[in-house]
Design goal:
With about 230 residues, the protein is an alpha+beta fold. The chain has 6 helices and 7 strands. It folds into 2 domains: about 110 residues, no CATH class; about 100 residues, Umud Fragment, subunit A, CATH 2.10.109. It is an enzyme of class 3 (hydrolase).
C-alpha cells in the first residue's frame, strides 16, 4: 500500500481536518498531564512501583497516584516517593522516623516495608535524613499491576527507547489515540490495543477499514510498536 500516495490523493480539507484532530489528541494528553501536575502539586503525579521492597502494601507494577502539598506535614507511617542524588529513578518507601527542629524544619528517615534495614544506605554519601525538598509526592491511591509495561521496559533493555522510557505522557497519548481510532473506525481497532500489550499488535489490528488517513495512522502506530517494543 502506497501510504504517501494515498495522502497526496486526499482532499486538502480532509487532510487538514485529520491532522488537526490528531494534534488535538496529542494536545489533550499533554494538557491532562500538566493539569495533573498543577492539581496534585507533584512533578510526577503518577509513578510505577518497580521493586518488591514495599510488599505487601504495594507490589511490582502497581500504579501510584501522588500529591505533594508542601503545607501538609510529613508524618511517620506515610508512604512517600523521593529522589536521591545520583539515582535516576525515584524510590517508594515508608517514613519510619520524623525529626522536627525548633525552627520548624523537618527531616525524616525511610524504609521499605519488605527491607530489613532503613534507607540510609541508599541516600547519598554522608546523608542520614531526607528533607521535604527530596520528596516527589506522597501516595494517595493506587491501581494494582496497571504499570507492568514499565516493568518490562526497565527489566528488558531491548524494550527500551530513550524517548518513551517510563514516559506516562506517551502512555496517555497512546490511550487517547486508541480511543480516537476506536470511535472513528468501530471494531477496526479492538480493545486489545492497550499499553499493556502493544507487543502483540499483529493480533490486535483487524481488517483494513476506514479512510486513507486512518490507515496511515495505523501504519505509523504499527511501526511505532515495532521500534519501541520489539
Amino acid at each position: 500500500m502506497d501510504l504517501f500516495g494515498d495522502l497526496r490523493r486526499m482532499n486538502k480539507r480532509q487532510l487538514y481536518y485529520q491532522v488537526l484532530n490528531f494534534a488535538m489528541i496529542v494536545s489533550s494528553a499533554l494538557m491532562i498531564w500538566k493539569g495533573l501536575i498543577v492539581v496534585t502539586g507533584s512533578e510526577s503525579p503518577i509513578v510505577v512501583v518497580l521493586s518488591g521492597s514495599m510488599e505487601p502494601a504495594f507490589h511490582r507494577g502497581d500504579l501510584l497516584f501522588l500529591t505533594n502539598f508542601h503545607e501538609d506535614p510529613i508524618r511517620a507511617g506515610e508512604i512517600v516517593v523521593f529522589k536521591v542524588e545520583g539515582r535516576d529513578i525515584p524510590i517508594v518507601h515508608r517514613v519510619i522516623k520524623v525529626h522536627e527542629k525548633d525552627s520548624g524544619d523537618i527531616k525524616f528517615l525511610t524504609k521499605g516495608d519488605n527491607n530489613e534495614v532503613d534507607d540510609r544506605g541508599l541516600y547519598k554519601e554522608g546523608q542520614n535524613w531526607l528533607e521535604k525538598k527530596d520528596v516527589v509526592g506522597r501516595a494517595r491511591g493506587f491501581l494494582p499491576y496497571v504499570g507492568m509495561v514499565t516493568i518490562v521496559m526497565n527489566d528488558y533493555p531491548k524494550f527500551k527507547v530513550r524517548e518513551i522510557k517510563t514516559s506516562v505522557v506517551t502512555i496517555l497519548t497512546l490511550i487517547i489515540l486508541h480511543m480516537y481510532l476506536y470511535a472513528s473506525l468501530g471494531s477496526f481497532v479492538t480493545s486489545a490495543v492497550t499499553c499493556s500489550n502493544l507487543a502483540g499488535y499483529n493480533e490486535a489490528f483487524g481488517p483494513k477499514k476506514g479512510g486513507r488517513f486512518h490507515r496511515f495512522c495505523i501504519h505509523l502506530l504499527k511501526n511505532y510498536c515495532k521500534t519501541t517494543l520489539v
